[in-house]
Structures are given as C-alpha cells and as structure tokens.
DNA sequence: AAAGAGTCCAACCGCGACCAG
DNA sequence: CCTGGTCGCGGTTGGACTCTT
C-alpha cells in the first residue's frame, strides 16, 4: 500500500489530457514533476503567500488555490508521508474526540502531517475503527470533566460573541478585544509536558468507558 | 485471466473569514 | 463602512490501485 505513492508519481497521459481540456486552458488534475519544480522555484523567490501571484509568476496554468494546496500537502519541507505510527494514530483519535473535524487543528499537533492527510486517514481507517469501538462500548454514561467543559464553553462563548459583534472593532486586529482568545493557542499542547497531557488521555478514556 | 467491488488519496469545490483600499 | 480580492478550511469527488470472486 505504501508503495503506490511512488507509482502515482508517474503522470497518466489520460489524466494529462483531462487536465488540459478543463476550464479555458487551466490545468487540473494531477500535478506533473515539471509543475512541482516551477511551483517550488516560485515559492523560493516569492515565499509561500500571494498564491495567485505565484501561480502566474511560475507560469503555471493553475489557480492560486491549487498551488497552495499542492505546496501545503506535498511540496512543503519536512512533510512526512505515509506510515502513520500507532502513537500518531492514537493522538489523532484523541484529538478528534476533543476537536471534531477540525483537521487543521489536529494536523497542527502532528508535526509534518497535513490536514488533508489526516482527514483522508480518518475517513479511510479511523472512522470505521472508532465506530466499531463505539458500538462495543455503547451505554457509557456521560461523565464530567471540568477542564474540557470549561474550554468548550469558552470556545462557544467566544464564537457567539464574535457573531454577535460581527466586525465591530474596526480592522479587527487580533488581540485587541477584551477576550483575546486564540483557538490555536488554546489547543497548543506543544509546551505542555507529558504529565499535563494526561487530562486528554483521561478524558478520552472516560468516553471509551 | 478477467471483471467487479472496495480502498485510498490527491485534488477540486464551495463557503466563510480576513484584510487592504 | 463597503467591497473585492485572497486565503484557509472542511466536505466531496475522481480515478488509480488492490483485493476478491
């Protein structure tokens, strides 16, 4: 299974044909090595932002969105691909319990992994596993966990606050509100030692029953 | 060996948020 | 404040690959 990544590197001529036929000359479908190279070169010069500019400067017939996706999921340095370890798998399951389908947040806790990869891995492997497990342990009473509840409540309130106020503070600069709350920071466990992380384990284990 | 079913993953799509002018 | 451009996210799709019959 892991080997077919390398097989996929070769671009199927049929795919190429399809690519070229779509949307007024815009390339779609699988990326070629040539396109990858051009994109990487452009990003080296302009940095990983202004994707529309990058797309045109690189001479790629791709939209900025597509370039960004390719970079984020494939070309970015330090990307780990395939072979998700048991530890990583366990972490994904736990984080998914806490965060739901917040793939980018989950990916942020797994260095080198992309949200797309985790989402795919979840959909193809873990969701089934978890469903089976849940079926087995059905009937587990809901138990309290003050810390996670507090966190969830805080998130809810902030979200409600935001929608209520809209963009009332001109510019809406981050951090200038009374409730300077950053979801990403909120779930940033990177500075917590393993002991502190125990609350996640305990919480998720409680759910397992 | 061939056909059909199932699996996996790269890429696309639509939407909402953000931001500069 | 409004508007258009851009970005990022999550859901979905298409097709290559693998397994089963």
From TrEMBL:
Annotated PROSITE patterns: HTH_MYB, MYB_LIKE
SMART domains: SANT (SM00717)
GO cellular component term, pick one: nucleus
Keywords, alphabetical: DNA-binding, Nucleus, Repeat
Residue ranges, annotated region (Disordered): 1-33, 129-180
PANTHER family in the cross-refs: MYB TRANSCRIPTION FACTOR (PTHR47998:SF18), TRANSCRIPTION FACTOR MYB51-LIKE ISOFORM X1 (PTHR47998)
Protein name, per record: Uncharacterized protein
Lineage: Eukaryota, Viridiplantae, Streptophyta, Embryophyta, Tracheophyta
